[in-house]
């Protein structure tokens, strides 16, 4: 099980990447940043970085707009 | 989003990774490899004009020389940066530069890097002995075009007569005097001879302005695309996160949103070939325009007009009225602008009237025969034209929700609570276009805003609802302290908000922990430096917040004088807090049921719909009251929402005339 933003839970699977997490959460936003267990993950590593089971993933959406 | 990373082997030993499509020079420089250049700048498009950055590459078995500044990496390759061939090429080229510009320091420095020292070999009639000679690197031309989106200066003449100039060699009146050509000039050839507004430290302002411009030029296209579509891009984001107001804020998304989102506007409507701006020289240039739009209604029917917009709030106001036809959005935008009517108040007020019409509280007789249902774009435009003439039902909408609501409450006393619940106004101002139901902090951000529920004091939905960054009441209160004061501050300074968070430094999230990153510290610092550059007075966070708090508290007291500054004036209509109708509850039933289970430990399967809605309402208002208690405390206001005399003393504004107004509310 993965915890997202200290609140939402999603099922973990072997080989799960950051991109899989974002897809599952339907986080389709350009201004986001991702930390796994407090480690920052650069956006060009989302496809390659696997998320360990029981991780705490923080996906920050930065506000923008008027 | 993420680009493919390609392996590049440098000088037979060092392996680096380069994002597909990137040029070679940047990663080479970052890897500590010396690449001489006169025309390259990390934030500008490379044009390979100085030819000094040549390297040898081998790709797909083929070896050749390329300019590293503009060679796009597509496949794995080997690079050699200092072969005999490269050394020879650079040395001859550097001697040619030295022969033409012998006294220019950057040329001397580059020549040294290339092992060139002979100033005479290529000396000729065109040798320029000026220490500040223009070396034709073209950085100024590209800065003007890419940072400021202008073409004030460019190359003219051919061969040895090539030079930088404004059109026809005259001072171009379109030049806004941004001075970035001078800032970026490596030789001092372009000098600023006058500083408008007499700033204390123009360089400090330029240093930080340059950062903003460079970020816009290099990052915007991968972030918010403000130069391409402006704030219209927020429509699809809000729809995706269930935050786009639909049918008077009942819902947060709609299947028809793609009909009018920014993709449609970009492809079919926004027609000016370059980004538009509030003022010439703005590097963000997020304002957009539609050219040649043929109007279907009103006094200008049949005429082709230019429409400034639409921006997010206008489009979202249209979804709030259930109108998803982009032609309608543009026409609505045009006539609101032409008549001087705020699109937000018009849309939110009309959405309220539509819901009343659908509920039977307003009839065809009231509306002058207009079927004012959700989605009735023609009826909306008729109301808009009536409003401009000060007549008919349009005039009623123009008087605002509070007036219309009070009239209907008298006529339908049994519906008074429902009207209070769905009339989306606080302090007499209509809500701007975000659904705040799932963000407690945003509910308070809206209703505590001094002018009424405008998002420009605090937009906290993502921090609160999506990121869960401010989970406790105290966290929310802190956000409700900092952000309204920060946003009030740059409004007071006449600085635009958009350059704070509509482009973000590439390393913002890497450099700062999330709570700090949300403030975008580098951009807050830019504002402080602009202030310091103009006034000579350094500023920090506390200084900024105190400057702002003086005005913010004064505004709150003025609000009180006008009859809007107490706790009861900060109470939102229930539609901003939770689901008013059965239809609303049922549309998000899973969410609300889960919240009953999680927050109140209640089994929703054992309750009927009415009971679930009542419990939800009770819980949500209780939470709201707790959050404004915490926010008042953090702001130095008492439980009635009145600034305390101690707070005014702290801020140095305990003037007798202000204390006289608030003292009767102190106990």
The end-to-end span of chain A amounts to 37 Å
Give start-end ranges of low-pLDDT stretches of chain B: none
Q: What is the CATH architecture annotation of the largest domain in chain B?
A: Orthogonal Bundle
Structural class of chain B: alpha+beta
Q: Roughly how much helix do the residues of chain A carry, as a percent range?
A: 10-25%
Q: Report the β-strand fraction of chain B as a percent range.
A: 5-15%
Major β-sheet profile of chain B: 5 strands, mixed
Please count the helical segments of chain A.
Answer: 1
The count of strands of chain A amounts to 5
Low confidence ranges of chain A? none
Beta-strand portion of chain A reads: 25-35%
Number of strands of chain B: 11
Please describe the biggest sheet of chain A, giving its number of strands, its sense, and whether it closes into a barrel: 5 strands, mixed
Overall 3D form of chain A: globular
CATH topology of the largest domain in chain B: Aldehyde Ferredoxin Oxidoreductase Protein, subunit A, domain 3
Please report the two chains with the greatest interface, counting residues with C-beta closer than 8 angstroms to the partner's C-beta: A-B, 27 and 40 residues
Which architecture name of chain A does CATH use?
Roll
Radius of gyration of chain A from CA coordinates: 11 Å
The protein's oligomeric status is heterodimer
CATH superfamily of chain A: Beta-grasp domain
Count of separate structural domains of chain B: 3
Please summarize what this structure is.
Chain A is of the alpha+beta class and about 70 residues long.
Walk me through this protein's architecture.
The complex is a heterodimer of chains A (66) and B (667). Chain A has a single domain (2-61), classed as Ubiquitin-like (UB roll) (Roll). In chain A, 12% of the residues lie in helices and 30% in strands. Chain A has one helix at residues 18-25, and strands spanning 2-4, 8-10, 32-36, 39-41, 56-61. In chain A, strands 2-1-5-3-4 form a 5-stranded mixed β-sheet, with helices on one face. The longest helix of chain A is centred in the first third of the chain and has 8 residues, at 18-25. The relative contact order of chain A is 0.32. With 667 residues, chain B is an alpha+beta fold. Chain B has 3 domains: 5-82, Ubiquitin-like (UB roll); 226-430, Aldehyde Ferredoxin Oxidoreductase Protein, subunit A, domain 2; 460-665, Orthogonal Bundle (Aldehyde Ferredoxin Oxidoreductase Protein, subunit A, domain 3), CATH 1.10.599. Chain B is 46% helix and 7% strand. In chain B, a hairpin with a 3-residue loop joins strand 1 and strand 2 (14-19). In chain B, helix 20 crosses helix 25. The longest helix of chain B is centred in the C-terminal third of the chain and has 27 residues, at 609-635. Chain B is elongated and about 95 Å long. Chain B starts with a strand and ends in a 5-residue tail after the last helix. The A-B interface holds A 5-7, 19, 26, 28-31, 33, 35, 40, 42-47, 58-66 and B 1-3, 5, 19, 222-224, 231, 234, 237, 240-241, 311-313, 455-456, 459-463, 466-469, 471, 497-498, 501-502, 504, 508-510, 514, 517-518, 520.
